[in-house]
Design goal:
- This protein has 305 residues and is mainly α.
- 78% of the residues lie in helices and 0% in strands.
- The protein has helices at 8-33, 41-62, 71-95, 101-108, 112-123, 129-152, 157-180, 184-187, 191-214, 223-256, 258-274, 281-298.
- The longest helix has 34 residues, at 223-256.
- The two termini are 24 Å apart.
- Mean pLDDT is 83; it is low at 1-9.
Length: 305
């Protein structure tokens, strides 16, 4: 083994949670789509992170970790909750009111760029040549997928631009939260209690916004809606976010964002199984470039500070 090579166990400790997160989040676009109906989007987001926050805090207590945070920790949790668990997901749910879930997933893959730039500015992480090449290859793949999806989107240009605008706002919100996880402040607190409190604060912000904009709580007491809420709250939030942020703290925001680059490929594969999505040559070429860029970038050294 060369001096700069990471041990196999270290690589697996990154690749396994990375793969789990990517598979879970690749499935969420279909589930979110099914929640857009009777219940206003902001209330659905509120329920999701209320469930996630309760699960995370319960897990922290089982681990005998204190949920008490000092003033700095509470401020950090509040900003994280606002950016990641309120603004980000309210924008995503609204984007899916205007464009297809596949197109939202594809546009969201662009988070690779602000993650890399913010990581360079705020965390001092260098962008090596191999990482930049991998990003360029993957972004070429995302572009092909984007062209394919925009061609087949049935909503028209105004709706498409509105949905893309909401998605871009979600990207910058999520990217801000991603970079926060790479700071020394984040590392100063246990992750599980911090995320649990941030999710509950995020749910509080979501609920306040939902009440002001849409009125009192609304819920759909059907098996499909409740099951979707539990899936998004437990698996896509309480399980996925700690895994993702754990990987992010090791490999940096830029490389961690590759989970978002792979997500549209997985979302389209699931759409093939459940929605009858048909692959074109353009989509296939885009998916191949995305995977190729991922391989190139993940073989780059961890970001230097």
């Amino acid at each position: 083994m060369s001096a700069g090579a990471a041990p196999s166990s270290s690589k697996l400790a990154i690749l396994i949670p990375f793969g789990i997160v990517t598979l879970i989040w690749g499935s969420t676009w279909l589930v979110i789509r099914g929640q857009l109906g009777v219940v206003p989007a902001s209330w659905s987001v509120t329920y999701r992170f209320l469930v996630a926050g309760v699960v995370m805090c319960s897990y922290a207590l089982i681990r005998r970790e204190s949920l008490r945070l000092d003033a700095r920790g509470l401020r950090f949790a509040a900003v994280l909750g606002l950016a990641q668990f309120c603004l980000n997901f309210n924008f995503v749910y609204r984007a899916e009111m205007h464009i297809t879930s596949g197109l939202v997933a594809v546009v969201f893959a662009l988070m690779l760029l602000p993650n890399a730039v913010f990581g360079r500015i705020f965390l001092g992480q260098q962008l090596g040549r191999q990482l930049i090449i991998g990003m360029a290859v993957a972004m070429a793949g995302v572009t092909l997928l984007f062209v394919r999806e925009i061609r087949i989107d049935p909503h028209g240009p105004i709706e498409a631009l509105t949905g893309i605008g909401f998605t871009l706002l979600a990207i910058f919100s999520a990217s801000s939260a991603n970079v926060m996880q790479g700071t020394q402040t984040a590392r100063a607190y246990p992750m599980i209690p911090m995320l649990g409190v941030a999710m509950l604060l995020g749910a509080t912000f979501d609920g306040a916004f939902a009440w002001v904009t849409t009125g009192p709580p609304v819920i759909e007491l059907t098996f499909a809606y409740l099951a979707a809420t539990l899936y998004l709250g437990v698996f896509a939030s309480a399980i996925a976010f700690p895994l993702y942020f754990g990987v992010l703290r090791v490999i940096g925001p830029a490389k961690a964002a590759y989970s978002g680059v792979l997500v549209p490929v997985i979302a389209m594969c699931l759409s093939t199984l459940f929605e009858g999505y048909r692959w074109s040559l353009l989509a296939g070429a885009g998916a191949a470039l995305v995977i190729g860029g991922l391989v190139i970038a993940l073989r780059a050294r961890r970001p230097a500070r």
